[in-house]
Amino acid sequence: MGAITHLIEIDVIVVGDIQSEHTSYAIPEWVKTNVKWWADGITTDAEFVGAITHLIEIGVIVIESEWDAQLAECAEFTRAYQRLDCENAIKEEMMREQYISTATQYIVGPVAYYYPGAHLENTAGGQPLLTIRMYAINQGDDNITLSCTGPAICNYDVTDGASAFKYASTDFTSGSITLKPDQGREFEMIFGPNIGYGGTTFVYDDSRQYHFRINESFGSVSIPLNFD
């Protein structure tokens, strides 16, 4: 199983969606035959990899990831709050690694922002809703505070080159996010209807190029938005 895991990690075997509802763990005879033929040099490497990939995708072969193993260790804690703290710490690290490996990095002073893309949709009433989710990591030696106390006083907004749009919703706690050295945090901002407090109504025009702007005391950047 370790060899199969290695093939997945180096992308020789590329696995799609896995069907976890599969309940039979018997290896089909055709697979055993295919393995024997591969060992004897009768079938190609591609055919062998295809057979293994299929078994992984239907859940006959289950590959335990490093994260799965770490989460399983949390079950050793007898107190519920200890298990929860353990699981949350691992899930946070999983999220961090996912952002680092898949998102675009923007360095602003001591903070690394990871942007995976923006999501644009319309409400039933036709109001465009733009959702931006990012992950920020403090790479410096001192605490750093990200500031956004309200729509009118926020170091983050969206522009189409002509107008600046203020958020309609955000998960900034009490108007700020403080990051200790090496600490990371995911945050989300939604641009849409005007909620007051100096806010604006987000307007989408597909002929314009939109940017998400960060203008903190420690630096600034304008990130071109790509919508999914």
Characterise this structure:
- The protein has helices spanning 2-9, 29-39, 45-57, 66-74, 80-102; strands at residues 104-108, 111-115, 118-122, 128-138, 144-150, 153-154, 156-159, 164-165, 169-170, 176-179, 184-191, 211-216, 219-224.
- It has 228 residues and is α+β, with helices and mostly antiparallel strands.
- The protein has 3 domains: 2-57, no CATH class; 66-102; 104-224, Immunoglobulin-like, CATH 2.60.40.
- Helix 2 runs antiparallel to helix 3 and helix 4 runs antiparallel to helix 5.
- It is 28% helix and 29% strand.
- Strands 1, 2, 3, 4, 9 and 11 form a 6-stranded antiparallel beta sheet that branches. A 4-stranded antiparallel beta sheet has the order 8-7-12-13, with no helix packed on it. Strands 6-5-10 form a 3-stranded antiparallel beta sheet, with no helix packed on it.
- Strand 3 (118-122) and strand 4 form a beta hairpin.
